[in-house]
Amino acid sequence: MFKCILIKKDEAGYRAALTDLDEAQLPEGDVTVRVSHSTLNYKDALAITGKGPVVRTFPMAPGIDLAGTVEHSTHPDYKVGDAVILNGWGVGETHWGGLAQKARVNGNWLVPLPAQFTPQQAMAIGTAGYTAMLCVLALERHGVTPAHGEILVTGAAGGVGSVATAVLTRLGYRVVAVSGRPAETDYLKRLGAVEVLDRATFATPGKPLGKERWAGAVDVVGSHTLANVCATTKYRGVVTACGLAGGMDFPATVAPFILRGVTLVGIDSVMCPRPERLEAWRRLASDLDVAKLATISQEVGLTDVLHLASKLLNGEVRCRVIVDVNR
């Protein structure tokens, strides 16, 4: 038997509860993992509360991240005792995820745990940090260097924004953070931000083009914020878009793209090919100051997840939430 957050939807309604399950109830897969840690992400909170159409099949164990040890494997790349991590691939949406003490998954979805990280540290990074690294790699791939100017990071006090700010700063970029929480200014400056702007500056409809300022950007918000970021990006600057915390719409014009040559790069962390995942985790191991992980994360137990989900959606939870599934 093992403990698991389980989401059900039936005649009795939509509900999530901490449940005891038998291993025989796990879904199909060629690797069984004894999970030690998971995370609570925005997508997980939507799934648990039912406030977003995240879960595609029921019942479902949420949790888009997990770290643990292989207990059983018929996959050629993994043997019993291997330390592994998993991000995305639809776990927590179409396949049972990491907010459980056991998971059975497709071995092709797994990545070896980098030797530089403990399972807790890997989950302090999690999908949010791995997504942030994909954004940084995209900026580099499109030629944005520290010499080109400032990088804007929206939603900077969240998981993606915190890691993006820390990594970009360590790589020598000048990071300007955007946050709707003035109390987080000192926190963001400790991560390396040289300036913190109020999100209200970006959240309302703006002009098709504004004053050029950003050499690049990492945006997790979407909607008017993304439109305004693009409108104020420098000639041939690069904007990476990886989130929709402010909405799925994009009320912009083509002006930044056809008059300034701005590049808008979409970042998908869920189905990202394995070689890019491995590169992202390799770079995190070298370019993220591990000492800052304690600053950008907090650890809770599996029993705390249900009440924290709503708080996360309400913006009441700072940065990364690591979940020790064994407490």
Strand content: 25-35%
What's the level 1 CATH class of the largest domain? Alpha Beta
Query: Count of DSSP E strands?
Result: 15
CATH topology-level fold name of the largest domain = Quinone Oxidoreductase, Chain A, domain 1
Q: How would you sum up the major sheet?
A: 7 strands, mixed
List the helices and strands in order: EEEHEEEEHEHEHEEHEHEHEHE
Radius of gyration: 20 Å
**How much is the average pLDDT?**
96
Helix/strand-derived class?
alpha/beta
The structural domain count equals 2
State the share of residues found in helices, binned by percent.
Answer: 25-40%
How far apart are the first and last residues' alpha carbons, in Å? 15 Å
Low-confidence stretches: none
Gross morphology is globular
The appropriate CATH architecture of the largest domain is Alpha-Beta Complex
Fourth-level CATH superfamily of the largest domain: Medium-chain alcohol dehydrogenases, catalytic domain
Please work out how many helical segments DSSP would assign.
Answer: 8
